[in-house]
Amino acid sequence: MTEVLITMKELTKTYKSGNDxxxxxxxxxxxxNRGESVAVMGQSGSGxxxxxxxxxxxxxxxxxxxEIDGIDLYALSQEKRADFRREYLGFVFQQFQLIxxxxxxxxxxxxxxxxxxxxxxxxxxxxxxxxxxxxxxxxNRLPSQLSGGEQERVAIARAIVNEPPLVLAxxxxxxxxxxxxxxxxxxxxxxxxxxLTVVMVTHNPENTxxxxxxxxxxxxxxxxxxxxxxxxxxxxxxx
Amino acid sequence: MxxxxxxxxxxxxxxxxxLFLAVGxxxxxxxxxxxxSIVQAMRLELGDRIDxxxxxxxxxxxxxxxxxxxxxxHVSGITFDIQRLTEEDLARIDTIADRNSVNIISPKLVGxxxxxxxxxxxxxxxxxxxxxxxxxxxxxxxAGLASGQKPGDLALLEIPEDQVLLGSAASRALGRKAGDxxxxxxxxxxxxxxxNETGSQEDGLxxxxxxVTQELLGRSGEFSLIELSAYCNFCPVEEIVAQLNAAIPGGxxxxxxQAALLREETIDSFSSLGFALSGVVxxxxxxxxxxxxxxxxxxxxxxxxxxxxxxxxxxHVSAIIVLEAILVSIPxxxxxxxxxxxxxxxxxxxxxxMQVAVPWxxxxxxxxxxxxxxxxxxxxxxxxxxxxxxxxxxxxxxI
Lengths: 239, 399
Fold this sequence. Notes:
- The complex is a heterodimer.
- In chain A, 32% of the residues lie in helices and 27% in strands.
- By secondary structure, chain A is an alpha/beta fold.
- Chain A has a single domain, classed as P-loop containing nucleotide triphosphate hydrolases (Rossmann fold).
- In chain A, helix 4 (119-132) packs across helix 5 and helix 5 (148-160) runs parallel beside helix 6.
- Residues 230-239 of chain A have low confidence and may be disordered.
- By secondary structure, chain B is an alpha+beta fold.
- Chain B has two domains: 3-50 and 264-396, no CATH class; 56-255, no CATH class.
- Chain B has helices spanning 3-13, 15-53, 87-93, 127-133, 168-174, 210-217, 237-247, 257-299, 301-309, 314-351, 365-388, 392-396, and strands spanning 57-61, 64-70, 73-80, 85-86, 102-115, 118-125, 139-142, 163-166, 181-184, 187-195, 205-209, 222-223, 225-230, 251-255.
- In chain B, the strands form three sheets. In chain B, strands 1, 5, 6, 7, 8, 9, 10, 11, 13 and 14 form a ten-stranded mixed sheet that branches. A two-stranded antiparallel ribbon of chain B has the order 2-3.
- Chain B is elongated and about 110 Å long.
- In chain B, 38% of the residues are buried.
- Classes of the chains: A alpha/beta, B alpha+beta.
- Chains A and B meet through helix 1 and helix 2 of A and helix 1, helix 9, helix 10 and helix 12 of B.
């Protein structure tokens, strides 16, 4: 029996740009199940990154409601939402977004910084996930000493080190060559098989083949189950 | 991985900025330490100098007095029960608890004499003590000097028993100059020298040896007053006065309040100047920290967004910024302490025109560190607040 992890109801988001108002989201309602992998596609400005930031507890919607694991996310205070992110979410950002002066292991330990774990426990947890993403021998390297694919793996390791139920990824393969991109998508697939829920914003239709479901966004709305979406999905899953 | 290690790692990466920050703080602390050390040395030196130069305590014989209207006539200045100050009272001064704080004791006897047929006031003093205490008395002319030779320092000259010093007005009134003779009470005295004019009543006095004066006035072993100069940087004058009043029942001891006030005012002026200068330099140092930290926060916007996204609370982000400032401030405080102490020692005597060396103020080490850390933390508070308030969505350019 499938269990809903994320429930979004009539989410809207309006930004002010000078005297103008930009409607980034126009009433998005969506459920995502636990253990599901969902690709969010759409043109630039369609609202997919805004949706991801709202799911990530970083960007309060103008109206509507979002619950993750039964928790009304924006009913929480800012500081409680920070705690929520630490325990429930892992982020994989565009361009990896690693801290340049921290080693791979230290970058991975970042979400554990404010936990009560001992230093030894933190190091062990970081080592474990770095091994999981295939970077066992490069833990003490700075981001500048790693390739793009390796940096992406570090970013993924950082997202999963605190064993969250949900990982949000924003264009994780956008700055990688196709072969490395495929390796990264296979890594996501593996994590998803282990029970992790993945929501990924992507421009690359190829990536949708690795996901359970693809959502198309258009002008701040979810597109109907259009032929485009179906077409994308017919490519089928490879793994 | 802790907040501390993140702050430390960032400082290691941005060495030049950390150095700039440290230099700003060190200059601020060094200035305060240097000024404080110099002002402190000035306090000691000035206090000692004033205390050495002038009497700040005087003992006069105890007497009772009253005013009376008798048969419609007002009679003032009726004195009775007049005590005398003697050699025994000098010995009693040595018994007080704060004797070590008393620098110079100068007893004197004042009396009227007939000098060359004119009435004059004679003061018997121990000349070396008296003129060490009263440095404003200087010789205008001195007997026996070769042409072009300048009169000596009164505090260092030994004046023979058969010689006297004349105040400028007394010299004029008697028509005597250095090397002349003056007859007082059938004894002939040579004028050792004539004093420069001071503009006070003291210009009309004749100064002679204390024992000779006691003999001339027929008051052997007796004094009119005893003046004392006390080092009072660390001793309360009032306390010494109380001890002397208790020790010398026949005397009435009073503090010369004016001298004490003058000393305090002068030192306070120096201190105020030092504090004002320190305040300005610290404000500049704080501004340097503030602008550097603000620039750092601006540069690290995206990084702060990542911290917030991975679960850092606002307080954690603020703590990183403040901690960085404090980590820099510790070596800066130490460097500032050393540089300030060294500056005070090397430049202090020239800046303050002092004749004594500025002592090394080891006790300022901890306050220097506290000042440096406090200043850094205070100046970093606004940048830390700004960092904590950064919108993570803006910071990560999610939109």
